[in-house]
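Rotation project, supervised by the postdoc (A.L.). Task for the rotation student: set up a whole-complex structure prediction and record inputs and outputs verbatim in this book. Inputs entered:
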Amino acid sequence: MTPDAGTLTPPAPSPSDVPARFRTCPTTGLKVFREADALIKAHAVVATVALLIGGVAALGVLLTRWQTVHLLDAVWFYRILTVHGMNMLIFFIIFFEMAVLYFAAGPLLNSRVAAPKVGWGAFALMVAGMGLVEWTMWTGRADVLFTSYVPLRADPSYYLGIILFAVGALVTVGLFFATLVVAKREKTYEGSVPLVVFGAITAAIIAVITLLHGAAIYIPTYLWSMGLMNVDPQVYRLVWWGLGHSSQQINVAAMVAIWYLLGALTVGAVVLNEKISRTAFVLYILFISMASAHHLLVDPGFGPAWKVWNTSYFMYMAVLASMLHGFTVPAGVELGQRLRGATQGLFGWLRKAPWGDPGFSSLAFSVVVFGFVGGITGVTFGTEQINIIAHNTLRIPGHFHATVVSGTAMAFMGVTYYVIPLVFRKQVAFYPLARIQPYLFSIGMLVFSMAMTFAGTFGVPRRHWDVTFAGAPFTFEYSSATDLIIGVMALGGLVAAVGGGIYILVTVWSVFFGKPIPEGEASEAALAGKVPPGVYRKPWLELPAEADAAERLEQRGFAGPVPGTMILVFVFLAAFVTYYFTNWKLLSFIWQVG
Amino acid sequence: MHTTGMTSPRGVWWKPAHRSEKVWFAIAFAWCMVLFAMMPLWHLKGGQNPTGIRHRVEPADYRARVNEFIAEYQVGDEAGVPVVEPPPGSDVYLVGMMWQWRPILRLQAGAEYTLHLSSVDVNHGFNLYPFNVNFQVVPGYDYGLEVTPTEAGEFHIVCNEFCGVGHHLMVGRVIVYDGPATATAEGTQAAPDGSGDDLITAGGAR
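Outputs recorded:
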């Protein structure tokens, strides 16, 4: 029962009654936990491979859209764009999320994995599906882009590969639920599951909804591709986006769970109120699958009542959820910092934050860019009428690179720097590079996605090989401003690619060739400069007692103990209101349409 | 007792929220209601809504209807694409196909038309430059939008839904001429090549 410094500590209310870091079960010993570690590792490794493939493809896409370089020909551009979308949005993200589920139900709950062999079987299925999809894409059998809108047709093996992958993922999600039952039954934790696990459960439930939509569309499409049945193009778009958009909501839920986790790991952020944060997660589950409508707002198949109701996620209740998390996450960091004595002024808690800790800088960038760029643009473009001036222009990828890349991927990268020492028990290789990685990646992606959004405002289409229209019967030139904007976009993208490259280098090197964490007490002296500081400072274990806390905290009007966060969210709201109504104004300038 | 997100809360966690959280919840909720109200409000008061007249249509039937429309109102031909000038208030049929928008339209500024959009093969995307008006064009569905061009000028239609390797070649044209007075006076309303001083050209096609 001696604490093992290298393993992740289960949550404990105070240092005095810290239980064993891992339950050393006399019958199974540590073997069971190694299974969880091995599963996490396997999923994380394949996720990183997908990230590498998708990243190389991203460079191909970027250097082609940047008309000055225009690297690829039309055939390879669309092929590589398909590769980029599938690897990033499906393989990288979902493999990583499966690793998060194993992490949430295993180390975080201190539990063994239920039926690890089934987990390996599901993993093999996912890898096989991915392999099949990669093969069809790279050999030109599936030049249909990520969305594969019927009646564009790919080789049947492409759809089959996705189905195999989805079945594997579904089994893994089922295993996660089974592990929760095991943990509960074996009493590996007391009380309710921690908030981070609650968020992971949210992601898992949304994953089930998503994967069922995937089955509902890819199985008929697979049959259609072999000439066995018909698939209506509009119905395809409806059901496919039940997969396509809902899968982004798995990302959101998983990302928010990681926000709470990173807050705890890096600065010992506290949860202001479990009720508020958990209710916000439940709102995601209830309303998120309506988001398919975001892609169908200017489609002929649906009426205005359906569009308004669904695009708003039941009167914006899922947006409300995100706005709540956008408050409680920074407020938890602020309160955590203030409880530890960072009480100076409104923003002393931010000044004293560990900005050199890649986990913390990732968290900060992820929250800010996801909210300010991704969230605001998403709600605005997802407004029924405003979608007329946004649909299928570069504004859309501008939006989702701010959410899924700057938000989700950045948070996932940040937590990796803690997973390496805590789960894999390795030092973080090239740690100085890891420290600057979130800055390069986030600032690059921020410039990239904002420039993309601006270019889209001029009408520049997404998914387009040549916006000079060489060879077309009629041509015209976009406003010369767009050339400059696309140049800026390329610059941002290249900086982000360097950040992405550093991430891959650091994680692969650490996991396979990294130095192990020294056994025994992992002190600051032994680990400083080799792992993120939270690993040895363990701020999540050192919560000040309630009595001390009350003395330290100054209550400031309705902002209570978190005045800094209250100011930040009002800045956010001001930006939101401004952008939203500016777009209504822009809309009013175009042709009358009804 | 404070907990982190990694800590299991003991006992009942359904407790009253911080005042700060209640305030933010109330503000966020109110803003969500504004977001929701704006859409129905714009249907009542605004000039741009993606409602349209929506029907299923067989691609072959739609192709026939477009050909009928072209035969009725054709005034010229450009790069092999017919130029069509329908009277104000009429139904206008535009088809997207690999990789062409057909026909070229001449419309009168300030007049209302019902612009029908459909495809005879795969999905296409209607994107009007420079006004950035976007609609999805789905095979099997006729999307009839009531449009009123606001000012004269030369417009292009770009395809913004991937439709195969020739996607980038798919550029169409719309010419919007000034009101009937000008056009009739110069007698160029039916000019087959679409030229005339009544046209304010905004693009470089000519």
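Student's summary: Strands of chain A lie at 592-593.
Supervisor addendum: Residues 31-65 of chain A form the longest helix (35 residues).
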